[in-house]
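Much of what follows relies on a compact textual record of a protein's fold. A record is reproduced here so that you can trace the correspondence yourselves:

. . .
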Amino acid sequence: MRVRLLPAVLLLPLAASVPVILPAAPAMAVEEDCGAVQVKEAGEARSAATRESAPLEQLRIADAHAYLAARGRQPGAGVTVAVLDSGVTASGGLRVSEHVSVTGRQGELDDWHGTAVAGLIAGTPRADDAGGLVGIAPYAEILDVRVFDSGDAGSTEGKPVSADGLVEGLGVVLAHPEVDIVNVSLFVDQPDPRIEKLLTRLHRRGVVVVAAAGNRPTEDDQPLYDDFGTPEAGQDAALRVFPAGYPSVVAVSATVDGLGDREDAAAYVLPNSRTDVAAPVVGGVTVGVDGGTCTVDDVVTSWAAAEVSGVLALMRTADPDATGDQLVARLLSTADGRTDVRSPMTGAGVVQPLDALRRPVTPAEDGTLDTTAERSDRRAVAPEPEVDTMAATRRDAVWWGVLGGGVLLLALVLRPLLARRGPRSP
């Protein structure tokens, strides 16, 4: 079974692969791409992103936080998100409840991808002069489930991405009943009945599983490249990207917002009829493996899935009693597209976190919405008058009354005249 890690399809430039070695503090930290960050020795300056997170500004996450704060709630509080990935750093301010590895290796990380994903979900705001938000749900707890060490299927160091690793990781999640959301920013290119069975069990428990919908492959990604190497009309990766291809999973794609008006998303992400929603990713700020902050500028559905997991954590904070299906229905129905006519690139549209929190949408427990119900923002109009079955009778009575009164009045006026013209006595 061929397996690939999503970010591997967009390789970093060679120049970005060489980390900047910094002198010990108090030297200034340098902003770096997350792929170039390495674990720092004690006393070395950590990476530090100096710009605002463009995707969080586009999604109005600060406004979503303010909405929750006005209701006395902290973004992500009381929510646990399991991150099935390459492991999460123990530094950097992330609220990691537990580190679990199914790769047979513990300790130092071999891959930065899992830390970047966790940071997009729950990175704490920067306290330095730059300030700014990092994660969407900074008060959420992360259950770190390390399911691979290297994204290269041919790697001899550590455990690569595999269906077996994903099965073991989902089994860990099932053993943790506190988990609300599962983020899977990786894929295998064939369905696996073991994975589907575990996902069904999680869905029945009310856990929402979010997965990346797939990136455009490179020549290194055989045999997927043979079918999807270049954009062509009619392409559909729904049956080649799992677990995003399973109906119980929220499949997330990425937009090219921030790359330029002429950029085509199809050059970066796969058209997928199972896509549920999309999110912007270019210019994101997250956590590096050195515990600092770093940036991600590539169009990768891994980052989009992490952002949607963060939005769902905000929604869970706002409505702790909602079922998983209700959360998903609200997420989709408040996106900026259409749930009945979905796009293979963006599904029901780009997520709208603030609308997902405050719009008066009330799905049933199974997530279904009554599409015949009137919109809550419809303008008020006067009610239609009820049919009056006695109107004609009352109208006739009025006219007869008017006519009778007129005759009586005429008789009273003429009576004196008629009395004076009567016959004289002999």
Remarks:
- Confidence is low (pLDDT under 50) at residues 6-29, 371-384.
- The first strand starts at residue 3 and ends at 4.
- The domain at 3-358 is CATH 3.40.50.200 (Rossmann fold).
- The two ends are 138 Å apart (CA to CA).
